[in-house]
Amino acid sequence: MVTRKDIANKVGVSVSVVSRALNNSGYVKQEKRKEILRVAEALGYHPNPVAMSLQQKRTKQILYYSKDLNNFYNIELYEGMLEEADKNGYVVLINGRFNFDIIPSLMIDGIILPNDHITGQYLDAIGKNYHLPVVTASYGEDVYFSKAVPKIETDLYEGMRKSLEYLRSKGHKKIAMISLYDIGSYHARTLAWIDFMQYELESTIEDYHFGINKEGLHNDERVMQFLEERTTDTTNIWESYYEKGMLAADIFHERQIDATAVIGFNDEMTLGFCKRIKQLGYDIPKDLSLMGIDGIPAGEYNEPRLTTLEIQAREMGKKCVQELLSILNGCKEKCIIHVPTQIVEKDSVRDISR
Amino acid sequence: MVTRKDIANKVGVSVSVVSRALNNSGYVKQEKRKEILRVAEALGYHPNPVAMSLQQKRTKQILYYSKDLNNFYNIELYEGMLEEADKNGYVVLINGRFNFDIIPSLMIDGIILPNDHITGQYLDAIGKNYHLPVVTASYGEDVYFSKAVPKIETDLYEGMRKSLEYLRSKGHKKIAMISLYDIGSYHARTLAWIDFMQYELESTIEDYHFGINKEGLHNDERVMQFLEERTTDTTNIWESYYEKGMLAADIFHERQIDATAVIGFNDEMTLGFCKRIKQLGYDIPKDLSLMGIDGIPAGEYNEPRLTTLEIQAREMGKKCVQELLSILNGCKEKCIIHVPTQIVEKDSVRDISR
DNA sequence: CTGAAAGCGCTAACAA
DNA sequence: TTGTTAGCGCTTTCAG
Residues of A near B (CB-CB distance < 8 A)? Predict the structure, then answer.
């Protein structure tokens, strides 16, 4: 490995001169600077990033703590981060498989957490006496943080409400929801759905909610069985969303629910639901309208193409990095940055209003 | 930030004692060691990973140079790497968006490259005077390296041949191939297909090959148009494979090819082909048999479920890391490690032999 | 058993 | 304009 010392020796100056020449800082006589650059080139010199980091107290690395790498949406967030990080000479590590207590052993300047829930866990686990700046993506979940953490937030309470209003504008009054969580969960999506059903549509709740989990459908043994079977395979959550969507379709069909539309917790689950419900003989959107949340490309390839509430994942990823870097640069603004959603109309919702 | 010096001051010993106590190396009196550990705990001390790296000349980081993060297969490779890396206290950076010349500024001990082609580019670009250990995944492409690079190889010449033999055993004698590359490309898959068609099936080649690229189908203006449209969006290659598969189906249909089976360059392309060809009225596998390569989960959700040649991506990822670490530990064995493939029979191939 | 000292590769304040 | 020096946080001889 070639060091600045080597160059200094070769040229016959001291390391500081070499350093100044290479960094374009301080005074160096033109001839020497040229000579130094030439020799550096010739020797194939590359600055040692570790030494730089030690001295500058900046690793130029960020951790994005994300477990599910097969999820298009997560990766989209990540791509946004990479784009913004690149511009600033930063690198983003993506990993969410290890325990939080490994984090201090990583060479990072800050952490981006994927949602409020995990942020809560993080803060409880090591956030107390560990000091790295943290930024979290957020979907308007109602989670209490012991410390204030800057949020890049897509308000899915508002997003869900917007989606339901859209469905209502198409004549739908009985709108079922499928989810991985139970009806009492504090997911903004669920809360918004409940509120809309109760106060806007004056409908009952219980019959129209399908939460594929122990609490949500505890009297259905398939759920339990399904959950047990799947616990071993923690790696592929996509499969889990998709398959749980299929299971939701089975149950929906069995119970002969009179909903005219179904909204899913996310696109993947909705696509799973769509696949199975079609197998069960439903024509989408003739017999039943379907709407998802996220805006993943698989929705576009679905038959019919899935109408969805698009979350600007890339944008969120970018903003996460921007915010984190601004904190690292000393701007202490603890804040919430909002990122808007948008309904993307495709072919899975039918207008039944006339 | 708490340092060993702080602990030393507090306990009233020197840094070296603290270091020894914390590292369990050398002699430290029991009482002191305990006291030191206690104080370290109390102060919330964490060793500074950058300082460690500088001193040990090991960053404990590996780069996996991969561009397409939405590709299930790539991520599967990555997951394999993570698993193996975790075990050894290593972290794997995944990124393939930046130029090779940024690599020296990264805090890494070694690099894993996704295929022979990129490895060739890497070596040409900076491999000459840059010295980091490199390992490459390989699919038996015929690429010349100026330096020997250890390969973790899935032999897709053999894999393709196996697949074609399987198809033949089901009675297929006219087997088309769809690909992103042209017939003259040195992809093992293409070569194996050509050889099998020529020498085993004694068939012509040109009519049965659909390479969605300028050279391959230069007389089809849609290809050109399609390529131009898509060049802006370099981020989503999945989409590109999938959509090119659809285009291949259009052309296949138009030309009224008499093939009874189609084999795809990979699963994604084959799934795109499947989608469109169904829209065009084909019943799969009644009218046409389909086979892919990779073994991605989407194949399982396809209608019909896709028969494929499964590549053990996770296994390859693991072995890439194992090999790289063994090089870092001084084992100089430059070698090729083979990873087997396996045909996974689902519903997309029909037996027409009787 | 302990601590001083040198060094990993680099920067920056200061003196020359 | 240049070189010396101290120091980033840690490890590792090597005298004591």
Answer: 1, 44, 46-51, 53-54, 59, 61, 69-70, 72, 75, 78-79, 82-83, 86, 89, 91-95, 97-98, 104-107, 129-131, 235-236, 238-239, 242, 275, 297-298, 301
